[in-house]
Specification:
By secondary structure, this protein is α+β, with helices and mostly antiparallel strands. The protein has 6 helices and 6 strands. The two termini are 24 Å apart.
């Protein structure tokens, strides 16, 4: 649950100008996460979020650039923990996940810069990724299998 919440927090701060812990809590609750202020504070610390200045002089939460490598490792960890299997149907990559982890795995794939993926749809335990070509689907599967072995 914490891994999925962390992925959601990173997604939310990337797409929204979130200035306070209260705002972050409200965004998380709209996404179905029941959190306390202490949980949000701990998540911010664990994700090493910082506040950056916006053009309008206000501040918002952001992931620290120097921790990009750490974040990529976190996304790989989320992918590995949620992954069950994968298969392809032409240029569609189908990733089976642990129940309840499909959205976190899809967000991890997005964050891992899998440029072959045009878009993803996540259910409860399945992610379907539209990939540009059959060849790119095969190459992506190879990279993901290799990452699972690391």
């Amino acid at each position: 649950m914490k891994s999925r919440r962390h992925v959601k927090i990173l997604e939310l701060i990337d797409k929204n100008d979130i200035e306070t812990q209260e705002e972050l809590s409200a965004f998380l609750e709209r996404e179905g996460y029941q959190v306390t202020q202490a949980t949000v504070s701990r998540d911010i610390r664990e994700l090493k979020l910082t506040k950056v200045a916006m053009d309008n002089g206000r501040q918002k939460y952001a992931a620290m650039p120097e921790h990009t490598k750490d974040l990529k490792e976190k996304y790989k960890h989320i992918f590995r923990n949620g992954f069950v299997s994968m298969d392809m149907a032409q240029n569609i990559l189908v990733v089976k996940t642990v129940a309840g982890m499909a959205m976190a795995v899809a967000a991890a794939l997005d964050a891992m810069d899998c440029r072959e993926i045009v878009g993803s749809i996540a259910g409860d335990d399945t992610v379907m990724c539209a990939v540009r070509t059959v060849e790119e689907t095969e190459a992506l599967m190879g990279r993901l299998h290799k990452m699972m072995e690391e």
